[in-house]
Amino acid sequence: MATIAAVIASTHHPFYYRASTAPAPERPPFAQEWVGKVEAFRQTLTRARPDVLVLVGSDHFHQLWLDSMPQFLVGSAPFYDANWYNEEREFGLPRMLLTGHLGLSRHLLRGGLDAGFDLAFSNELRLDHSVTCPIITLRPQNDLPVVPVYTNIFAPPLPQPARFVELGRTLRRLVESWESDLRVAIIGTGHLSLELGGPRQFGPHGPDPEFDAKAVQWIATADVEGALAEVTLESLWAPGNATHGFMDFLLMMGVAGDGVKADYVDTLDLFHTMEAYFTWYPEAAR
Amino acid sequence: MSRYLVDKFLYTVDRDPELVERYRCDPVGTVEWWERNQANLLLRCHAGESSTWLSFEEEERAALRAHDYPKLYELGAHPFLTLTLFIAMFERDHPEPLGFQREYASRLSPWLGRPQPDITT
User: Fold this and answer.
1) Cys-Cys link to A59, which of A64, B8, B29, B96 (CB 3.0-4.6 A)?
2) Nearest C-alpha of chain A: how many angstroms from B58?
3) pLDDT tens readout for residues A75-100
4) ipTM for this model
C-alpha cells in the first residue's frame, strides 16, 4: 500500500513569487523573513521524500464557473497547464506545466464515489494559484506528478464545514488503501481570516487576528471538534469575506487525523493576511 | 435581480485583456455592447445555442456603466470578481503600492461592522 509521507497545510499567497524573485531593491521589506520561513517549511516536504503529491486547493473563478459549479472536483489528466492571464497580470505568476498521476486520480475518484462523495472530475484542467503556490513554495523544481483536488469555498451555496473534514478523512483512507509503493504527500492550501473586495481588505494585518490565533491553534492540534463547535458557514463571514478558505484547512485537519498535533508549525504576520505553515509526519506517529 | 449576470460580465471581461482595456476606456459602450451581444452566450457553446432570457436590472446596468464598485458591492456582485477586474483597470493610476486597493477599502468603509450583502447566485 502507498505511504503517506507528509500531510501539509498552508496558506497560499500569490504575492510570494514576486516578493521572492524580484531584484533585491524591488523586494518588499518583509521579503527576507518570508523567504527564510518558506525555505524552512520547504525542508519539511523535502525530508519526507515524496513521490507524488495530492494538492488540495480552490479554483478562483478561473476554469470553474457558475454555469456548472462543482463542490468537490478531482483532476484526472496526464498533464495540467497552470496559472491564468489575470494571475500573470496581477501577481506576476509564471505559466507552469504540472504532470498528472492518472492512476491515483482514478483511485481517488472511484474510491471517493464509493465512499459517498459524488466527486466531479476534469480531464482537462488548467490549475490556478491555489495549487501552484505550494509548488512554488514547497517544490519549486516541480518534478513530481500530482493529483489536484478542488473544493468550492468561493461560490455559495457551499458545502458545510463538517463535509470538508469528512472529505479529508476520506482522502487519507483512500491514499492509504492505494495499491502502490509510492510515497504520497497530501498538501492543502487555504486561508486564515481574509477580506477581498470588502472594506477590511489590505489592512496592516489580517482582518481578524483573534480568529487567526484561534485558527492556528485548532490546526496545530487538529482540533476538529473545537473548530467545528465554533465555525459555521454563517460565522465565517465575520472574520473576513474570504475566510471560507479556512475550510480547506478543516479538510487538511481531517487528513491529519483528529487531535494529531502537527510536527511543524510556523506563522508570519504579513500585511493583509497571516501566513501559516503546518506539517505532519504520519509515519513517525505509527 | 440578475446578480449572476453581473458576475458573468465581470468574469468574462476580466479574463480578456482587450475587454479589460475597452471597459476601462469606454464603460458605457462596453456595457451596452456586452449586454446586447454577449450576455446570453452560453460559455463554451456556439452562438446558435445561446440563452434567451438574460438582461441586467437598471441599477446593475447603471453601476457597471459608472464603474461604481461600491454599488456593485451593495448589489451582491462577487467581491473577488469586482476587485480583480477593478485592480486590472485602475491600479496603474495609483503610484504607491496598494494605493488603489486601499482607496477601494476606504470607499467601502460605510459597510464596516455591517454584514456583507448576500452574494449567493
Assistant:
1) A64
2) 22
3) 999 999 999 999 999 999 999 999 99
4) 0.95
